[in-house]
User: Which sequence fits this backbone?
């Protein structure tokens, strides 16, 4: 397989997975805020 | 009932229902797998008379560019609707779509650069009008996201960002039309141009465009839902703080 083809698709998937990770971090931060609110 | 109030009463609940729907998630996964299967299983790697495996990147490169154009159009509409109604939902939609659109524009540039390195023997060509105008889009939306993140809860900055989102959108149709308005070096117009034979495998291209549009929808839906939840949590925290202050020291909480 053409190495740059692999590089191109890998870059796309890496970026998409990183964005999902960013969204998950936001969810975790929100969950912490909600549990703080419930504990008060 | 005018168009704006119909959008408020029917459009927003419909969009919320669409974003909450789990079907989008499964459709995205299915379309993604089908797209990759068709690109690597049946798509032609011969384009514009050049046969090379790197041409297979074109299927997602075009899909990414299409999804980016849709995303930035939604940002434009969201900004206009926010300015007209001041409903936070439109602001969340505009910003979320701008964020995902920026990601898609970046990936379009990356995949295009990789494709160009093999076919043109160059990572970047300043003489190609499509490349340069697409880079301008990247800078415009990087600016949009920067201004937005610097604004915080300031209502006037949100309005300024929305005006920027509307004005900045001019670059999107300009980039699309650039190969027709100016002489392109590499990007020749393909749609409706009888002189260009891209020999692209249409079903694989359509599947890739569908997959990337679904990825866009899934990301934007998740981001808008997060923004709305965050807003509700912030309101709840503020109400709790106000209640604690009203009760006086030592009487808040249990």
Assistant:
């Amino acid at each position: 397989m053409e190495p740059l083809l692999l590089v191109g698709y890998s870059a796309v998937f890496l970026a998409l997975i990183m964005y999902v990770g960013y969204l998950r971090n936001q969810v975790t931060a929100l969950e912490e805020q909600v549990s703080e609110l419930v504990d008060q | 009932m005018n168009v704006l109030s119909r959008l408020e009463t029917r459009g927003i609940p419909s969009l919320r229902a669409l974003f909450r729907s789990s079907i989008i998630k499964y459709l995205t996964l299915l379309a993604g797998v089908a797209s990759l299967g068709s690109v690597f299983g049946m798509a032609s790697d011969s384009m514009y008379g050049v046969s090379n495996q790197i041409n297979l990147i074109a299927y997602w490169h075009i899909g990414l560019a299409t999804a980016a154009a849709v995303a930035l159009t939604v940002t434009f509409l969201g900004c206009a609707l926010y300015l007209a109604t001041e409903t936070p939902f439109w602001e969340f939609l505009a910003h979320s779509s701008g964020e995902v659109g920026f990601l898609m524009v970046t990936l379009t540039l990356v995949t295009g650069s990789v494709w160009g390195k093999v076919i043109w023997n160059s990572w970047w060509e300043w003489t190609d009008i499509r490349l340069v105008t697409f880079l301008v889009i990247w800078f415009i939306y990087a600016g949009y996201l920067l201004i937005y993140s610097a604004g915080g809860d300031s209502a006037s900055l949100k309005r300024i960002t929305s005006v920027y989102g509307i004005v900045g959108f001019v670059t999107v149709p300009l980039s699309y039309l650039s190969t027709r308005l100016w002489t392109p070096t590499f990007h020749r117009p393909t749609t409706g141009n009888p002189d260009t034979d891209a020999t692209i495998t249409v079903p694989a291209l359509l599947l890739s465009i569908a997959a990337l549009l679904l990825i866009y929808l899934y990301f934007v839906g998740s981001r808008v839902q997060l923004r709305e939840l965050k807003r509700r949590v912030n309101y709840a925290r503020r109400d709790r703080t106000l209640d604690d202050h009203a009760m006086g020291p030592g009487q808040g909480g249990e």
